Structures are given as C-alpha cells and as structure tokens.
Amino acid sequence: MANILIVDDEVGIRELLSEILGDEGHDVVLAENAAAARAVRNARRPDLVLLDIWMPDTDGITLLKEWSANGQLNMPVVMMSGHGTIDTAVEATRIGAIDYLEKPIGLQKLLSAVKRGLQRPAAPGAPAPLTLAAFTRSAPLRELQRLVQQVVVNSRVLLLRVGPGSIAELAARSVQPKVTSWLDLAAVSAPLDVNQLQACQGGVAFVAELSRLSRTQQKNLAFALERLERYDLRLVVATDHTLESLVREGWEEALVMRLFEVSLAPPSLADLRDDIPEIAAQLLLHLVEAGEVPRRTFSTAALNALRAQPWPGGYAELRAAVKSLALGTLDEEIALTDVRKLLIPASEGAIAVSLDQPLREAREAFERLYFEHHLRLEGSNMTRLAEKSGLERTHLYRKLKQLGLHGSRRGEDA
C-alpha cells in the first residue's frame, strides 16, 4: 500500500488519522510541525501528504509554497483545516494541493480524498528551476523576493546592481516563478528574431552581466526591449558597471538609460554567508529531485565549510560546487573531507614561506599569505577582515597597500 505522511500539530488528530489509514493498510508516518515534515519528506519520499494549514512554526500554505518553489511538490498533497476559508482553499489549490478537507474530517471524505490522490499520476518531467521562494528561512532572500515582485508589477524591466558573488540568476528566476520560458540573451550570438521572442512568450529574458555583451548582443537586447509588451516578457539584466562606464565602453546612451530606470541591489553571497548552508542544502535537494545527482545529504561540518568559502562566482559557482560534491562522493552523506578536496587546494594551509631569508622578508611573505587567505575567505569585506585580524581599519588599509593587496569598500557594513 501507500506511504502517507500526516502533518498536524494536534497529537489527537495525528493519531486518529494514522489509525484509520493504518487500518486501510497504508504505511503512515507522522510529523508534528513543518520542520519534521521537511525531514520526513526528504527521507521517505511519501506517496501522499495530509497537511494541516494552521501550525505554530511554519503554516501549511508556506510549506506548500516552499515545496512547490524548490521542485519537491511531486507528490499529491491534501490540505486540512478547522478554520479554513474559500480563499485559503483556492490559494492551496493554485499552489498545487489536490484537495482540501475541513475539520472535523469525516471518514468517507478522508478515504475518498486519499484514494483520489493516490490515483493521480506522478508529476512528469524535471522540477522547475529554483526561485527565491524556496528559501523560506532566509530573511534577506524573503525581503528580496518581495522587492522583486513589487517591482515587476509596475515595470517590465529590472536592472540588478551586482558585484562578486552575484545571485542575479536566482533573483531573475523569481520574476515569473510559474513560467519556465527563459531566454538567456548572452547565449544568443546571432541576430535575434521574433520567433525566438515568441517562443519565450510570457517568460523572462535575462543577461547576467551587461558589460560582456558583444555589439550584436547589445542590438539583440535593444530589439527585445522594444517588444516586451507585445510578447508579455520581463527583462532582467545585471551589471557591476555604472551607467556612465557602459556609455564610455560604447553602449548606446538611450538604451542604457532605459535599462537603468528601475534597479535593485540584491545581496551577494558574501552578504548571505549565514544563509549559505540553507542555499546549498536546497540546491542539493533540487538536484536530487531533478535526477541530476544520486540521493545525497550534507553533514553539518560540510555545510559550515561551504559557508566559509568566498564564492566570488556567486550562485552559479555554488550550484556547480554542490553538483560536483554530490557526484564526487560514493557515500550518501557529503562530508567535510569532500568539501576540502574539491574547494581547498592541497597546498592551502601550508605556510609556503622560505626560512632561508631575512626575518623582515619572511614576516612580509607570511603577512601576504595571511591577508590573501582572509581576503578570499571574507569575500574582500574589509569590516570582517578588520575584525578577524584585530587591526584598526585605517591600519589595515595601510598594511594591505604596503603588501600590494587590495580589499573592497563595496558591501562594507555601514
């Protein structure tokens, strides 16, 4: 029979439903809150979920949205509530729930809903790409999602001001989370035509870095920009350049001014360091659900090691690392040693300073290695580097200049 997960914070309801479905021959697993439900869903892959809406930690609608956003809503979910409304039922159905049961739940209604759910065919195809909605425990990412949604209601064009560690693609994917149509203009080297735009109708056109576009691609961008309304497209572009610098590089001023009309400055992975374990774990879950990697989990030590990396290549670099880690280990759990093998060169950690030189030169060589290591680790954030090294910031700038190193004033704490 089926493997069914019951999620409800009321122990009496959990036990009653478990007894009924157990008598029907089903294998029932219980979860008292969203955190337990996540763990069971990932470990057991239930055939059906009965999910309560009103729970103390994370409500059922939010959990349903999370599963939908990260590609895990590939099992039927029946919502339950004693205080539901028609609007709540409609929203749950829109997100992906297959049915809605009002408490107290009658025996026949329960069995009928379970039977209908189990008769539904499995969701076909790979899950949609991850969006910001998948990261429900990150306050900065939740805020960014709200900002992105607020902007795109009133503008078809959004410019993301980014630097090293960019999460531009993740933000752009969140503009139209239910639409899979996606056109990467940087991947189109020939002149763009209306057929390509029509094929992406209702979707998103994206550029990860404006300054890398060729002249032909700049013309393609202008061509798409003029036809956004006709094909119901959103355009999301990102750059670490200013308007003036792009014009100096030969961009058409009128085009650049249109692109810069509405902009946001999303956080970088350096700003999101405390959220990197969650981001990495969700990326791994998504890759597993998509069938791109075997079933894997991260150890706590491995996640902490990922958190300590600088990730100058941003979201794309982190995603590639997670995929490589999942494919590069034979064990179900990705361990700290796996992260070290992939991301930390074997020579790092060894002090490559010759002892056959004067003390002053040896000390300078050590200091250069020390600051290079911590600049990399802290993503060139001078505030954190000052705290780590114990140096006053003015002294730190002077020391780095003396050693021929450069930190970044961008992204410093105010």
Topology:
Elements: E1 3-7, H1 11-23, E2 27-31, H2 34-44, E3 48-52, H3 60-69, E4 77-81, H4 86-95, E5 99-102, H5 107-119, H6 139-154, E6 157-161, H7 168-173, E7 182-184, H8 194-199, E8 204-207, H9 215-225, E9 234-239, H10 243-248, H11 253-259, E10 263-264, H12 276-289, E11 297-298, H13 300-308, H14 314-327, E12 333-334, H15 336-343, H16 359-377, H17 382-389, H18 393-403
Parallel strand pairs: 1-2, 1-3, 3-4, 4-5, 6-9, 6-10, 7-8, 8-9, 11-12
Question: How would you characterize the overall build of this protein?
Answer:
This protein has 414 residues and is of the alpha/beta class. It has 18 helices and twelve strands. The strands form three sheets. A five-stranded parallel β-sheet has the order 2-1-3-4-5, with helices on both faces. It has a five-stranded parallel β-sheet with strand order 7-8-9-6-10. Strand 8, helix 9 and strand 9 form a beta-alpha-beta unit. The longest helix has 19 residues. The C terminus is likely disordered.
Task: Compose a concise summary of this entry.
This is Response regulator. The chain is an alpha/beta fold.
By secondary-structure content and strand pairing, the structural class works out as alpha/beta
Distance separating the two termini: 58 Å
State the low-pLDDT regions, or none.
409-414
Radius of gyration: 25 Å
The profile of the biggest β sheet is: 5 strands, parallel
The number of helical elements comes to: 18
Shape: globular
If you average the pLDDT, what whole number results? 87
Strand and helix order:
EHEHEHEHEHHEHEHEHEHHEHEHHEHHHH
For the biggest β-sheet, the strand order reads: 2-1-3-4-5
Helix content: 40-55%
**Percent of residues in β-strands:** 5-15%
Total beta-strand segments: 12
Protein name: Response regulator
Keywords: ATP-binding, Nucleotide-binding, Phosphoprotein
Modified residues (4-aspartylphosphate): 52
Domain Response regulatory: 3-118
